[in-house]
Specification:
- Helix content is 53%, strand content 9%.
- The protein has helices at 4-49, 51-58, 60-63, 74-85, 144-155, 159-190, 206-233, 238-249, 295-307, 362-374, 380-408, 432-448, 450-475; strands at residues 93-95, 104-108, 117-123, 130-137, 255-256, 266-267, 314-317, 326-330, 341-344, 351-355.
């Protein structure tokens, strides 16, 4: 007579093992084929995490000035900067020195520069002496060194084509982390001491030692990898566009102050990696801008402070043309976040629009915080250290993965000298509903994240080719 206990193992053989085998095969292919892209993204990300310190050291002369408790009016500092650029120059933005010992940045639009780049003149707020003239990038105000590292991390300095590399890495990083975490859980359920899997083994050698490092570091880094993947995708070209459309459909967009006179608030998305786009429209070229009295910057700063600007990290944007408003906005991304903005009509000096961070929707706040955490801005040095350690951990896991692949190769079988692939046939053992779920998930993720869809097709092609090769060898 058949007992219930006799039927349970059969059901389990039909459900759990096939899923673990499928994940191992996916984890393997993603690690081998996408690993180099993840490795480059991790190493360049680690360098970006410490770039603020490198920036302060390299550009100390431009960023620092003797502390003063009585800075000169912005008008005097802007006039000094204009003298360097040319008397007819009109600043597109001014960032007053946020703290004693810092310099003021007077920025100018320059059509010869790249997207989101400006020419910045650095002025000593105590003496109005010009101490530097550099190109800065985005709202983060990155200087040339940090911009170079950022573009390396973002696109390998290959422009939009290069951005596909980082999108591939970001898209697969989360999938690899999720698959690895599930595999770790499945293995932990079979072991007598699952807590031992939380730390690398010191008693084993060879493959088992490498595996223990790979898996234990991976389980600790999994949440961070999923976070970096999710936030990184928002900056990507193909997947990022889908994220933007989804947020728009759900009304989760980030509000931005409108510079249109008499216009309503717009919405702004973070289109530029690490540099990040401003919360307002791009300033017009110098030819489009009307002549501006340098004293207006002092007046606008005072008016903004009377409304809702209460932090030292402030940017004052001049009107892009005769039909645009002045904008005074906070740019403090550290916690507590201060990114309030207010727009003023240059003729009437009345408030035409304002956006307060307190009024952001919860999704918009989470998006802002997620971006700032990814960039290492939210919690300062602690944030940077965590990102650096996480990035080094990710790079190490990629290298351990390749080492395991090499260590697994059969030593005495020349036909397998490049290593072995986890056993195939997992989907053939799956129940119909399991197969349906896998297919639907693959199609859905592939459509939402096109780089995943394209690479999955490559994985399948490689897998089929290996299967054909194996069958031919078996017949010989």
């Amino acid at each position: 007579m058949t007992t219930p206990s006799a039927t349970v193992p059969e059901n389990r053989r039909h459900s759990a093992p096939w899923f673990g085998a499928l994940l191992r095969r996916l984890h393997f292919y993603a690690g081998i084929l996408v690993g180099p892209f993840i490795l480059i993204a991790a190493l360049s990300g680690a360098l970006y995490a410490i770039s603020p310190q490198l920036e302060k050291a390299v550009y100390a002369e431009q960023l620092s000035a003797p502390p003063t408790d009585h800075p000169l009016p912005l008008a005097s500092q802007v006039e000094a900067a204009n003298a360097v650029i040319g008397d007819a120059a009109t600043p597109s933005a001014v960032r007053p020195a946020p703290e004693p010992g810092d310099t003021t940045r007077v920025m100018y639009s320059d059509p010869s520069l790249g997207e989101s780049e400006s020419r910045a003149v650095f002025v000593d707020p105590g003496t109005a002496e010009v101490v530097g003239d550099l190109t800065v990038y985005g709202t983060s105000g990155a200087l040339p060194l940090r911009t170079w590292i950022d573009q390396m991390h973002r696109s390998l300095h290959l422009g939009d084509v290069g951005r596909f590399y980082s999108e591939l890495a970001a898209s697969w990083l989360g999938i690899v982390a999720a698959a690895g975490l599930v595999l770790w859980i499945l293995r932990a359920r079979r072991t007598k001491k699952p807590t031992a899997m939380l730390r690398p083994s010191r008693k084993h050698q060879g493959l088992r030692r490498t595996f223990s490092w790979h898996s234990s570091v991976g389980v600790w880094a999994a949440i961070g990898m999923l976070f970096l993947s999710a936030t990184g995708i928002t900056w990507s070209q193909l997947g990022g566009d889908n994220v933007t459309k989804l947020r728009a459909a759900l009304s989760w967009e980030t509000p931005a102050v409108s510079t249109e006179l008499g216009g309503a608030s717009a919405t702004g998305e973070h289109a530029h990696h690490h540099g990040d786009s401003s919360s307002t429209e791009e300033a017009g070229s110098a030819d489009d801008q009307a002549a501006i009295d340098p004293a207006d910057f002092d007046m606008m700063l005072s008016m903004g402070q009377d409304v809702n600007i209460d932090t030292g990290l402030v940017e004052i944007l001049s009107p892009a043309d005769d039909h645009s408003a002045w904008v005074v906005q906070e740019i403090q991304r550290s916690f507590p976040t201060k990114v309030d903005a207010v727009a003023f009509d240059p003729e009437t000096m009345e408030v035409t629009d304002r956006v307060d961070f307190a009024d952001y929707s919860v999704p918009a706040k989470l998006a802002r915080w997620g971006i700032d955490l990814h960039m290492g801005l939210m919690f300062g040095l602690v944030n940077q250290i965590v990102l650096f350690v996480l990035a080094v951990g990710i790079a190490s896991m990629v290298m351990w993965g390749y080492r395991m692949w090499w260590q697994r190769r059969p030593k005495h079988d020349p036909s397998e000298r490049f290593g072995v692939v986890p056993a195939r046939g997992a989907l053939a053992k799956a129940p119909w509903w399991g197969l349906a779920v896998v297919v639907l998930a693959a199609v859905g993720i592939g459509l939402f994240l096109p780089m995943v869809g394209i690479s999955l097709i490559v994985f399948v092609a490689v897998d089929v080719a290996l299967g054909v090769r194996a069958r031919r060898r078996a017949k010989v």
